[in-house]
Amino acid sequence: MKKKKNKRNNILKTRKKEEPGFEIKNPLSTLSEKTQRYIFSGLFFLLAITILFSFTSSAGVVGAGLTYFLKLIIGTVVYVAPIIFILLGIIILQNEESLKDIKNSLIISGLIFLAGATGIFSLAEIKTSESLKNNFIWNHSGPGGWIGYIISWPLFKGFDFWVTFCIFVIAVSFSLIIIIEPFWKKWKESFEKEDEEEEKPKNKASRESAALLEKMKQEAKEKLKMLDFKKKEADNSELPALEIKKAQKGFEERKKENLIYKYPPLELLSNKSGNSEGGDIELNSAIIKKTLLNFGIPVEMDEINIGPTVTQYTLKPAEGIKLSKITTLQNDLALALASQSIRIEAPIPGRSLVGVEIPNRKRAVVGLREVMDKNDFKISSASLLMALGKDVMGRSSFSDLGEMPHLLIGGTTGSGKTICLNAIIMSLLYRNSPDELKLILVDPKRVEFPIYSSLQHLMCPVIYDAQQTLVALKWLVGEMERRFTVLAEGKSRDIGGYNSKQEKKGEEKLPYIALIIDELADLMSVKGKEIESYVVRLAQMSRATGIHLILATQRPSVEVITGLIKANITSRIALKVGSLIDSRTILDSSGAEKLLGKGDMLVMSKEFSKPKRIQCPYISENEIKKVVTWIQENNQIEELLEGENNYIELEEKTNSLSGELQKAMETPEAQMDSFYSKEDPLYEEAKRTVIASRKASASLLQRRLGIGYARAARLIDILEERGIVGPADGAKPRDILVGEDSEE
Description:
Blueprint: H1 2-18, H2 33-54, H3 60-74, H4 81-93, H5 97-100, H6 103-128, H7 130-134, H8 145-199, H9 208-231, H10 241-247, H11 251-257, H12 281-294, E1 299-306, E2 310-317, H13 323-327, H14 330-337, E3 343-345, E4 354-359, H15 368-372, H16 375-379, E5 385-391, E6 396-400, E7 407-410, H17 417-431, E8 437-442, H18 466-489, H19 495-505, E9 512-517, H20 520-541, E10 547-553, H21 563-568, E11 571-574, H22 580-587, E12 600-604, E13 612-615, H23 621-634, H24 637-640, H25 644-666, H26 668-679, H27 683-693, H28 698-705, H29 709-721
Parallel strand pairs: 7-10, 7-11, 8-9, 9-10
Antiparallel strand pairs: 1-2, 2-4, 3-4, 5-6, 5-13, 11-12, 12-13
């Protein structure tokens, strides 16, 4: 029985010990380490404030009693006590790793400073008082307080006054150095970091410094190659095309050398620009990380790039995570971020990161002047360099039309398609004189391009209908074939090499020709097959001859952007489209349906492995008028040239091609025969065959000329259009409208 009672008592005692009510705990132990630091730091700041107010008798009885007690302990050094308490509060408040390791050394240095300062005051009192020199009074409190007297009296007895004074001064000096050094080092680093951030744009990451350095190295290498190239006396035809291009003069050099033509200044364009607002960046970054983690995708957030239209949040997924899992969560991320649409770029080209692009709260207006006022635009030697806008990192983007060599633009109404075309045209006008670049503008809408009608760069008046467009395309095909003959005779591979040779000889150069169509869908609906055939032929072969096409449409369907056109025009710009199908038609991938409109676009060319998001620059109608008017008023050739003969020679040189095309525009019917003759060498023979036999059918031409049905039917159509044969009338034979002895 006794054993059972003892067991039960032991169990009860054990339970009492385990119960929480019997255990005494530190009330601060339940708080977090951060909260504890704030509490202790606040207490030290409170002590400093109390002592400061007690000096003016404004801290009450507690403040006066605290100051009296400190005076007994440390004497006159009490006036430094608030500074000491404030430093202790700051030390406790800090949580940086760099300050964690030196907290103890800072506290010890503070105690050494206190001992040295009190010792100096007490030492001065001991030297002047004979009673204090000889007798040690343990409860004495003088200017140095009780602590100072206890420390200084034994040292004074052992080392006398001057040695003891030096000891205290050295102790105070070293303690101050130890206390100030870490704070000074930290402040210095923060100042240097702020200076670096001010020099860099706000939206650029630190990694760009390395890229800039690499770019400068590449530019230096290119300059050295250019110097070596100039020293060579060999013919340009024996050098690679790349070296010839690098040896070409930059835009600023050509601008200074051209004394006849005055290039328009950038001051004509508006310099209005604004800053974008990306919203709460930290919150959005945390939401992205948490949302992906909820779906079992742990990620690490990386840098954040604030662009003019969107903010790009970059993240690095954990190893073993498929990118397809992240891309399928677009709608879930848009819901979590309360965003109208987001775009995921997985991966970012050239980096092991995934980009999540979120629309900004406030979009920044990107002006054309802001983009063109960059060294990349001024120094480049590319004649057909176009200012495309700014990317998601806020960097200006340019592209060379000569390298593309043709461009296809698609986007819905209101997406910024026409403004994009205007920005491209203005970029070309700012870099080229009329004898360097010729433009053919096609505007079926009749309201967009008439503003350029007074430009000397135009080869013909602005074209408004499909028939004139067809004539212009046929003329371009003939001009392309003529240029191939000229290049072959000059033993040059392309127009760049030919013009370099002509410039050395002082002879006439070939101008670049750019055909710009604002609405391709309207033309394709009227004369689709004919326009498609000529567009495809120019796209296949005209690059070397300096003829380039820029085609824009608001209906990116397969009837307008056919397979042949897409296959031969690989550089494309997609603005906002209405559906995923339209995006795939332009880019062969999704993404354009997620764009925000108003110039937000995706650019695809051989320079980018994946479509690159760029905000197109805005240019108003008033700015275009200013530039066109300035060019017209400041480039009156009669006023710039001294002699009449020089004027006539230059006028003939710059307008020879324009005269040919304008003649074709004025009399398209009369020019049809020459175009068809150039296009099909059997046209004349087919005409003679039909007139001689007094019959007209595709089967007749097949038998007589030994050609296929498609070519024979095409020749019959040509003969009908030229008025040689009559129209088809069911099963009846066609009428022959000319006689055997008639001449055209």
